[in-house]
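ugh finaly. both done.
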Amino acid sequence: MEASGKVAIESDAKVMHEKYCGLIERPFKTNKKKAIAQGMIDGIINCLQSMMDALEFRFSSWMITKDYVKNPFDAWRAQFCLEFSSHVFP
């Protein structure tokens, strides 16, 4: 009696496992595609943020060397305003 109960439970578990694997396969594949796309977009955004930082430093140094600003701290303040405003919308 006990052995037949174990066989019934094991076969039921196997059927449930096969159904579960069949149901989970499609969402797994679509989520994998979405994860790859999200990783690529996140990498591009991080790259653009670094390039924006480099442009800010370059622009600040250009303004200082061309004497467009009297005080270097003004260029520094403008740079940090651009920096913080660009981090508001990641």
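ok and the 2nd:
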Amino acid sequence: MSLTEDNVLLNLLIETVAIIPLNTIEFGRLSIVGLKHLLSYTQEKEKFFVTPKFKVFRYSAILAAKQVSNDTPMHSNMLLHK
């Protein structure tokens, strides 16, 4: 599914999620694909994204590590300071 102007529901969903800080979203509630679409949309539309870049990187790294191993996020949290 592409992000088109006529997809009002998807646009509304992404705009709503973009104003929620990523650190308040439990890991596993937002998929890597969902995060990719969210970031692409906000960059493409030049929309405000509330989470700072480092925290987006941190969230992405932990999310990717979680896909490799469920034990990894604990170690990633220690390495990637909040």
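summary for the 2nd one i guess: The first helix runs from residue 8 to 18.
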